[in-house]
Amino acid sequence: MRELGKMTAEERQVAGPALNALKDEVNAALAAKKVALEDAALDARLAEEWLDVTLPARVRGQGSIHPVPQVMDEITAIFADLGFSVAEGPQIETDWYNFDALNMPAHHSARAEMDTFYMARAEGDNRPPHVLRTHTSPVQSRTYRADYDQTHTPMFHQFEGLAIDKDISMANLKWVLEEFAAAFFEVDKIEVRFRASHFPFTEPSAEIDFRCSWVDGKLRLGEGDDWLEAGGSGMVHPNVLRAAGVDPEHYQGFAFGLGIDRLAMLKYGIPDLRAFFESDLRWLKHYGFASLAVPTTYGGLRG
Length: 303
Fold this sequence. Notes:
32% helix, alpha+beta
């Protein structure tokens, strides 16, 4: 190609097309060889990395369900069988729904920043403050508090039961709790005891205790002379009914709240609440549940 400049015009007319044709032929040969080498490399890789996708999966490779959603499903199955429906709400709530609508005055200690996570607000923002829900009474299953030790964490799980009608009493509440506890812990019967207490959103209010015993360091529910504190309950306060647009002169109801994490610890022998949130796969392999075993009251809560 460099010699073309030394040729006469007549010679270039002959040599130019011939050289271009030869150049195209060489480039085509190089491209074809490159493709052939790439195909050969791919064939070698496929032969080396071949896998029979029809082989059965190895059991050790299957995932497992965390104890918290497992217990949530168990609780849902039990209360669905008792005629309850499931309601959920946002995790970020106004302080009116979280406190005021639940008969909690402005000076209540639970509204202090040391106990509640408040959302940051821009300067000059006069809208009601928002909080990370601190309890389940505003219809919430995951809550947050500034607390962290072996039996408390800033984020935790709760569920709350609520029934409103024209003729509901504490006797109905006690029956529901007894039926739930017996089904959840898979025993014939669990005795429930009420202890007088105080909650702003219920009147009267009561702590819930389950009859139990400790044998060789292990908890046994439904027998013995000891009592295990399980949660809070009571008849819905008239002020809460009014805030929800329900006439307390004609309607009344009960409410109760239990900690899902605590129930999981009691049922499955988990000693430390903090382990629920540490993302340790070794812990999950030990305490996890089969991913396809859906709890039902007729087929077994553990699937």
